[in-house]
């Protein structure tokens, strides 16, 4: 049992305890490792730990803002030299990074201790974290349910109290969805705000950005201060922000905002009443504070945008498999990866360059429309997800789909699946639970999931806020204000968070 209540502090809180010599770095690390030992066997958030290495690293005299504070890295893109990065796949299990990512470099300078890597779906492709190679990560609020994906391992590590915050990235909701499912705060920054290099100048054509999942708003702001900045060969640059996000959240929102909201799915599928209720009660609270709120859908064609997003999936997965063959030095076969990964790769090969370019043009049209929209409305609010967390295994392929994929995988033709109608079904099935988050990735806007509701079954759901590009400061101010209200989900209600 740790004597200073490790789980009760956020990253800045732990850093302050260390700075004031109320607790030592070794004591903090011991508390974190003890928590991992007691919890991870049930939650399966960490798939690789650096216990021996990190114990040697605490002798570092680093005096950065987070000196001595434990942190978890996500098993995709957040590379550490000399450490494995498996991407949640057995075919990548022997890969060892030969250099630090820029993300890791910037965080290390501020003294964070990297405890290890968190679980992800294979290649980060799903909104649940159930890779065949490592097994499912479970939601600390209820182990029968998913913590979401693709940063599900990171979210579970934070929600169970193993770390105060954890690395994450978001290419279609992979920060916001797990944050929503685990009662945490998740900010997706503006495209180009945080580094994706040096091995990438763009990641998923700019849809994917790096940041973190946190317990508190101030930790997210402090991490963004560290990560914010232009990088070498970066394909995108965010609108400049010359202040400090951590200071901005202290200022609050001084004038009433104009806010639009919607509880309708952009792809016209069902939205659970609990997810709608989360938005409605948030809207009523904001109205009570004097903000001007109107129900209005975003000015984009949701179905066209979803189709363009899926086209990106096809192309990027196919390209990833091709690059992977160079890394491992052999051809990737159907048996090497999960069936859905193989299907997406085949569909990528069947997608023309023309289709891919047209999909990117759809992003640009949506980005322009949303910038015009935000000239009138400061914020746009939706549910983060259309449904509460699913049970583990609910996303598994049905027997007919498995048979079709097996046949297609062996003959190497995606056209068969199109004829059978399975592709369209898989697309709708993959987005119907999470149709709200992709918009911000494709337009490059910042967006956040805020923990403002718990269902009658005791499962968290989030409320999503979007703002114009470059307006992370406004989002963080709004979140900091909501954090002080009774709407904010108390993390200590989940049983694993309270385990000593």
Automatic annotation (TrEMBL):
Example GO molecular function: catalytic activity
Leader sequence segment: none
Limits of the Amidase domain: 27-476
Organism superkingdom: Bacteria
SUPFAM superfamilies found in the cross-reference section: Amidase signature (AS) enzymes (SSF75304)
A family per Pfam: Amidase
Family: Belongs to the amidase family.
Protein name: Amidase
Organism of derivation: Sutcliffiella cohnii
Record lineage: Bacteria, Bacillati, Bacillota, Bacilli, Bacillales
């Amino acid at each position: 049992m740790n004597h200073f209540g490790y789980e009760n502090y956020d990253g800045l809180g732990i850093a302050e305890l260390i700075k004031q010599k109320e607790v030592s770095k070794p004591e903090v690390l011991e508390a974190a490792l003890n928590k991992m030992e007691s919890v991870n066997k049930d939650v399966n958030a960490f798939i690789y730990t650096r216990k021996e290495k990190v114990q040697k690293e605490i002798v570092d005299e680093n005096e950065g803002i987070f000196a001595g504070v434990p942190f978890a890295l996500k098993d995709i893109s957040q590379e550490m030299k000399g450490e494995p990065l498996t991407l949640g796949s057995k075919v990548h299990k022997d890969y060892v990074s030969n250099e630090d990512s820029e993300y890791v470099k910037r965080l290390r300078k501020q003294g964070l201790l990297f405890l290890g890597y968190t679980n992800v779906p294979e290649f980060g492709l799903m909104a649940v974290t159930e890779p065949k190679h490592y097994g499912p990560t479970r939601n600390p609020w209820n182990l029968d349910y998913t913590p979401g994906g693709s940063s599900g391992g990171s979210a579970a590590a934070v929600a169970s109290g193993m770390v105060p915050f954890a690395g994450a990235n978001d290419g279609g909701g992979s920060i916001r969805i797990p944050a929503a499912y685990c009662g945490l705060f998740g900010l997706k920054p503006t495209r180009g705000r945080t580094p994706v290099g040096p091995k990438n100048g763009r990641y998923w054509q700019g849809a994917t950005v790096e940041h973190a999942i946190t317990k508190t708003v101030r930790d997210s702001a402090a991490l963004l201060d560290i990560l914010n900045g232009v990088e070498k060969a970066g394909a995108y640059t965010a609108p400049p922000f010359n202040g400090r996000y951590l200071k901005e959240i202290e200022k609050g929102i001084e004038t009433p905002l104009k806010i639009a909201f919607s509880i309708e799915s952009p792809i016209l599928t069902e939205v659970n009443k609990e997810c709608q209720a989360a938005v409605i009660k948030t809207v009523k609270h904001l109205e009570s504070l004097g903000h001007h709120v109107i129900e209005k859908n975003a000015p984009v064609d949701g179905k066209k945008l979803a189709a363009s997003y899926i086209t990106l999936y096809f192309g990027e997965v196919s390209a990833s498999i091709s690059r992977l063959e160079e890394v491992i030095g052999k051809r990737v076969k159907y048996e090497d990866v999960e069936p859905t990964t193989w299907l997406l790769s085949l569909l990528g090969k069947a997608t023309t360059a023309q289709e891919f370019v047209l999909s990117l043009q759809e992003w640009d049209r949506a980005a322009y429309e949303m910038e015009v929209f935000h000239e009138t409305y400061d914020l746009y609010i939706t549910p983060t997800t259309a449904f509460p967390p699913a049970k583990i295994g609910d996303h598994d392929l049905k027997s007919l789909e498995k048979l079709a994929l097996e046949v297609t995988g062996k003959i190497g033709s995606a056209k068969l699946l199109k004829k059978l109608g399975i592709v369209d079904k898989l697309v709708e099935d993959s987005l119907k639970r999470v149709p709200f988050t992709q918009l911000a990735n494709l337009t490059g806007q910042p967006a956040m999931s805020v923990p403002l509701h718990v269902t009658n079954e005791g499962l968290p759901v989030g409320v999503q806020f979007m703002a114009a590009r470059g307006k992370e400061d406004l989002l963080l101010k709004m979140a900091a204000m909501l954090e002080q209200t009774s709407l904010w989900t108390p993390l200590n209600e989940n049983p694993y968070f309270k385990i000593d």
